[in-house]
């Protein structure tokens, strides 16, 4: 599983232009115009929509006799995809302690996830096959850095206008019985924040443009490094100035999101990058970390941010629910350890009683989603040991394969993947976090292929 195969079948087809270029627009348009896709109600759906043109262009290139490369360790990912498909056969099973249901009722969400995994596979292969002439790495890095700016702006919007929302064009086109479903709303209904009672009263937690507060926090960690690389590796003085401004401003929504997973993720990212630079002999990174840490400490003491952090740490309402769901996921894994159950399930009742459930007055009481509180637990429960090994094996192999990449792009990309490994304990990856993970992998892969690893 350690090879990076190339694929070439036959010669150029009659009438097909030799060595057709892969245009950059399918990837670039997703990233550059994501706020527009979000406002239109397409959001994460744009990845599935763009997968069609990307797949067509890849097939056209192969038909013309051009080599089609697959990423190193791709066999691991194929194992994961096969497990996703095979596990659909277990959708009719009802693990102990979960709400009984029929496979047909679970097929749509399972099919949606399978479609998104397939779409992001196409994105991975397409982005990795783009050449420097077709989509320069610096442009891709800047597009990812731009999305960090978008994330910060969305966070500020969630802070100052937490109730901001509107009906998207796509939402208008859907029947009322469909668009009013919670899952559909998360896909097509743009809103600035999720209103949650975390520290004693209901407060807005930034979500725009990523749909969920947890996804917002996950993407914050995955994209932060790209802004730094875009400014310091490829930008000038003005770019560095505005990058610093953005990073300083980002502290406010990061804190007010009350997202402990984000705080941990940033810590993991900083430690990882610092260790990589120290090992490369760049000891100045230690001074930079100390200065940044001191400035953060001052801001927490001198502003209301410290009070917010303290209140969040004193209110761990979600801890019990997370522990409960982890236990249910591990129990389910023992019941079907090889292929899992094909998707998530809802618990019977809550932590303390099976009679507690959702109601109009308490939508978050009981009936919790097993596998909805972290990618690792979802992999184990939904796709068993085989799917989990394939998923983790692919990214872990990438980290090992490209471990000698000491370039700024390589450190940022591997840092994003390392951060995602810690995040999978409490965040789910579909769709945008996994998209940014595969793009980070693609940049490592291209760096290695083009010999730019120092």
TrEMBL record:
The keyword Transmembrane helix applies. InterPro entries: WaaL-like (IPR051533). The chain crosses the membrane at residues 36-58, 70-91, 111-131, 143-164, 216-232, 239-256, 262-279, 284-305, 376-400, 430-448. Keywords: Membrane, Transmembrane, Transmembrane helix. This is Uncharacterized protein.
């Amino acid at each position: 599983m350690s090879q990076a195969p190339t694929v070439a079948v036959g010669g150029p087809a009659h009438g097909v232009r030799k060595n057709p270029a892969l245009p950059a627009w399918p990837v670039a348009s997703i990233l550059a115009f994501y706020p527009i896709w979000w406002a239109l109600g397409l959001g994460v759906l744009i990845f599935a929509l763009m997968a069609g043109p990307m797949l067509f262009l890849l097939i056209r290139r192969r038909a013309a006799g051009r080599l089609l490369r697959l990423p190193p360790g791709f066999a691991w990912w194929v194992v994961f995809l096969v497990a996703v498909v095979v596990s659909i056969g277990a959708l009719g099973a009802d693990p102990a302690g979960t709400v009984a249901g029929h496979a047909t009722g679970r097929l749509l969400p399972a099919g949606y996830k399978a479609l998104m995994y397939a779409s992001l596979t196409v994105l991975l292969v397409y982005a990795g096959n783009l050449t420097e002439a077709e989509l320069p790495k610096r442009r891709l890095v800047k597009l990812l850095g731009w999305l960090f700016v978008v994330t910060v702006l969305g966070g500020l919007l969630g802070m100052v206008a937490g109730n901001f929302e509107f009906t998207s064009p796509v939402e208008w086109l859907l029947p009322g019985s469909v668009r009013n479903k919670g899952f559909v709303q998360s896909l097509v209904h743009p809103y600035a924040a999720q209103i949650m009672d975390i520290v004693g009263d209901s407060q807005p937690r930034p979500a725009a443009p990523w749909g969920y507060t947890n996804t917002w926090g996950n993407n914050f960690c995955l994209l932060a490094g790209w802004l730094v690389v875009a400014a310091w590796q490829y930008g000038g003085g003005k770019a560095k100035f505005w990058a610093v401004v953005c990073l300083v401003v980002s502290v406010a929504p990061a804190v007010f999101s009350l997202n402990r997973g984000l705080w941990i993720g940033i810590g993991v990212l900083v430690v990882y990058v610092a260790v990589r630079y120290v090992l490369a002999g760049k000891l100045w990174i230690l001074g930079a970390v100390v200065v940044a840490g001191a400035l953060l400490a001052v801001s927490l003491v001198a502003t209301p941010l410290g009070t917010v952090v303290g209140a969040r740490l004193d209110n761990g309402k979600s801890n019990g629910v997370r522990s409960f769901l982890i236990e249910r996921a591990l129990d389910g894994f023992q019941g079907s350890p090889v292929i899992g159950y094909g998707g998530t399930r809802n618990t019977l009742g809550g932590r303390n009683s099976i009679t507690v459930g959702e109601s109009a007055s308490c939508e978050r009481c009981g009936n919790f989603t097993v596998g909805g509180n972290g990618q690792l637990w979802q992999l184990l429960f939904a796709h068993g040991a085989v799917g989990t090994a394939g998923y983790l094996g692919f990214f872990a192999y990438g980290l090992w394969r490209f471990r000698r990449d000491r370039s700024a792009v390589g450190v940022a990309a591997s840092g994003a993947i390392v951060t995602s490994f810690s995040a999978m304990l409490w965040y789910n990856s579909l769709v945008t976090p996994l998209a940014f993970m595969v793009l980070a992998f693609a940049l490592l892969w291209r760096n290695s292929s083009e010999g730019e690893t120092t």
